[in-house]
Amino acid sequence: MSKSVQGEALPQRVKKFYERISVERDAALEELAKLYSEDVRFINPVVDQRGLSNFEETWKKALRQYKTFEFKNVLVTGTDELFSLTYSMNIKFAIGPTFVTEMATDCHAKDGKIFLCRDYFDPLGTLVGPFAPISWLYKKIFSHLVA
User: Fold this and answer.
1) Average pLDDT per run of 10 along the chain, which is 147 residues long?
2) Interatomic CA distance for residues 87 and 29, integer angstroms
3) Contact 14, 81 (CB under 8 A)
4) Nearest in space to 35 (alpha carbons), one of 52, 54, 58
5) Which helix (H) or strand (E) holds 117?
6) Residue 22 near residue 71 (C-beta atoms within 8 A)
7) Which residues, 6+ apart, have CB-to-CB distance to 109 below 8 Å?
8) How far apart are CA 63 and CA 47, in angstroms?
């Protein structure tokens, strides 16, 4: 892995951002412009948008919406130009259960900043996860549909 201007490889800096936002919340957002390009494209199962300001707003919305918003067991693999993070994301609203989402994020970068960020997760599985009977049914149904 090559070293960035800051002396640490980009994948490790992104890992630290995820760990930092879990604790410092909004204060960690100051790192976004150091890690992501101005025209970053952010994609997940429910969002496809461009631009650092839109990306930052997505983070701010999540921080407003969730009482708990944390990333656990963040692992990173790859190079400065193409790397992936895997982790558990735990979110909780003001009331109700904690939702645990197993995630992967692929990052494509050039010139020391990420220009494409794609999250992979199962939104429906996450939603039903805390409810054992519904979760069981969901898994049972999909076990017949997916190899």
Assistant:
1) 66 97 96 98 95 97 94 97 97 92 97 97 78 81 78
2) 19
3) no
4) 52
5) strand 113-120
6) yes
7) 10, 80, 81, 82, 83, 115
8) 16
